[in-house]
């Protein structure tokens, strides 16, 4: 690939021949392959087609959410409302089909609209009202978790249940809707194809189109992007809308799997998505969010959980393992590099717009120690 | 330590150094990646003397200062203090060993949101031996003590106001007071007057002389010949990372400036003479421009066929002016016209559409996308022109970038090289070259020579001059020599007012310095 924003470039004057550089680049992938072989040799039933498909299928929901979150990470933020929107989407799907007896496509449309609205609200809070992204999306997360409980009176919405006002809901998850996660083509569920398709589209968009290029520019240096003629706020806003909509898609897949309006659904997907996005930083030494990395991150987490579960690891240790995997990946990204101090220094050096009290005029910007600073 | 005035300077250059040599630098080299900035710098400064350090932009001055102040470790070479080799692992260590440094940008030395008192007392506040609990009274008492080293007596209101509300020169004085309160043996002043008015500069000079008489050794970095004449016992000229020559004033005559400048620029002063071009049609015109609340509006026409330089110190408003012309920032009032038609960009995108391009002041913070290749950096503003069926055409981008690289002489392994692998000068060429991919009508260049080595400086200068034949070029700089080197017409901006507007032929160093440093209040006095 020629486009440097998408591809890590470890070369800093010297070719990347040393071990650290190698580990940084291929560590996650090598570890993944090693674990794969180890599990295959030691765990019966791991090295099977069903097992592989199940890894993918289990990760699909969080992975689709992670791809949206990744887009907000690319513009320099992080959408923490992804998990809540996945849950909201499950609730909306259940309400549309079970309570109001709409068809599958209508339910899907309603979910997408809900996701889009949340994304637009996030975007408005962050872009227009200048709320810091993490706080804005955190607030949105709580609000939506509350909203979805309120929508269904805090209950799990299932066919035939009685609502608090006495009505009995008679609707059903339609077949076309449940097919999303259950219908298989050549042994692979539709939901997995959906994940692969979204990954591919996202990759093409981000790495091969001008808009994707500008998304990277906005994340790399928003001020430089603005001075190159980018209306930065549109891209930030867009990132949240897409993130909201992808979270809604993830929720549709989850609803199709659960076939009921589970009020706690999607809550755990947030941490999974964060882990996938951040593990993605470590893939091929990118040190920044990227599509391929996020996808590999999903696989990596999936295969570790699958392997350990098949070896008898209890389900309640899963969060611990995810957390450790995440920390391992972050170490790969940020601590193992020979220029690490400089890199971190640069990461902190966010171009912070003109200070309110900025003295007018040509302020010599002192050369700071950062990668790429070359004084002549 | 006894503080007695030092020995007289020996006249021969790069001489062997005597016992009284307090600061001795031997063979210091420093590279950043592929770029060797210092190539074996050696010099010595005798106790109680003031040593002037000169060098064109990019000669390696700032790097040398960083090495001497402990901010950067040299790749090789040694620093001796009073004959002993010293190593500064960090700036704090250098400070403790008696090397005080005042950097050019006072904002590096102050905490904008803290009060004047807290800033003055910062060393005391961060000293682990200071009492755990403190109150405003103690902080202010400490602050007054620090201020006294500069002979300042700040009143209570001043002490309690946040530094953010202070002018640049006051900030500079704060930093100076703090540096002096540490009682350094060696004081490094990096262009300390760039933010000061003439009176303040004169006060600073008196102080520096008194310090030197007291036995403090001073390394004084400046561009300004007059300052060296007034202060220095010796001047060293740094060029391309080597201390090329040293000069001492001839008795009764001062420094031989013609010789100094020849070494400084590698050309004789006569060769630097150039006729200013008269300029053609007005391309971009601004009128009723008001940059600050308390300044009157002014007008400015930028013509094609000549390079117009806006010369002004820190805080003069030149960056505000350029960013406003580009639609990136707003000013208090003003109208813009481009080629006779109304021009009111509200976003850089609008300006770019009309062919008005800006090279921002700070390359790293405002122009470069970290990690990107040269070709991607260049095509960013015009990404849409390199697509086919919605997809980017990497080959076309590369070819376009290659053509520009050849045109302006970017030294790199190829258009796919990450920009970080380039030297500062080549990076600057890339971010200027970006705009050559468009169709420039007006090129606004804010400090285009900053952090650029001398060869790149010449290349950029000639690119800019060449461009002026087809577009209007406006260069903002705070450097007098740069203004004289690249400009055909020089407009001096002094805190939001135009205090001089002259052709190259009319411009002289003295007139420009006068216009740059005069305080607006004095101008008013003269006018009234």
Description of the structure:
The complex is a heterodimer of chains A (376) and B (528). By secondary structure, chain A is mainly alpha-helical. Chain A has one domain: ABC transporter involved in vitamin B12 uptake, BtuC (Orthogonal Bundle). Chain A has 14 helices and two strands. Chain A has helices at 19-42, 49-74, 82-99, 104-128, 133-151, 175-182, 190-208, 210-220, 222-227, 232-258, 269-282, 291-310, 318-334, 340-348; strands at 184-185, 188-189. A two-stranded antiparallel ribbon of chain A has the order 1-2. The longest helix of chain A has 27 residues, at 232-258. Residues 1-16 and 338-376 of chain A have low confidence and may be disordered. Chain B is α/β, with parallel strands linked by helices and 528 residues long. Chain B has a six-stranded mixed beta sheet, with helices on both faces. At the A-B interface, α8 and α9 of A face α1, α12, α13, α14 and β18 of B.
Tell me the layout of helices and strands.
The complex is a heterodimer of chains A (376) and B (528).
Chain A: H1 19-42, H2 49-74, H3 82-99, H4 104-128, H5 133-151, H6 175-182, E1 184-185, E2 188-189, H7 190-208, H8 210-220, H9 222-227, H10 232-258, H11 269-282, H12 291-310, H13 318-334, H14 340-348
Helix pairs in contact in A: 1-12, 2-7, 2-10, 2-11, 2-12, 3-4, 3-5, 3-10, 3-11, 4-5, 4-10, 6-10, 7-8, 11-12, 11-13
Chain B: E1 21-32, E2 35-46, E3 50-55, H1 61-68, E4 76-81, E5 84-86, H2 91-96, E6 99-102, H3 116-120, H4 122-126, H5 136-148, H6 156-160, H7 168-181, E7 186-190, H8 198-213, E8 217-221, H9 225-231, E9 234-239, E10 242-247, H10 257-265, H11 269-272, E11 282-290, E12 298-303, E13 307-311, H12 318-325, E14 333-338, E15 341-342, H13 348-353, E16 356-359, H14 363-366, H15 374-379, E17 387-388, E18 391-392, H16 394-408, H17 424-436, E19 442-446, H18 454-467, E20 472-477, H19 480-486, E21 489-494, E22 497-503, H20 509-517, H21 520-527
Parallel strand pairs in B: 3-8, 3-9, 6-7, 7-8, 13-20, 13-21, 16-19, 19-20
Antiparallel strand pairs in B: 1-2, 1-4, 4-5, 9-10, 11-12, 11-14, 14-15, 17-18, 21-22
Helix pairs in contact in B: 5-7, 16-17, 17-18
Subcellular location (chain A): Cell membrane
Protein name (chain A): Sugar ABC transporter permease
Transmembrane segments (chain A): 22-41, 53-74, 80-100, 107-129, 185-206, 237-256, 268-284, 291-308, 320-336
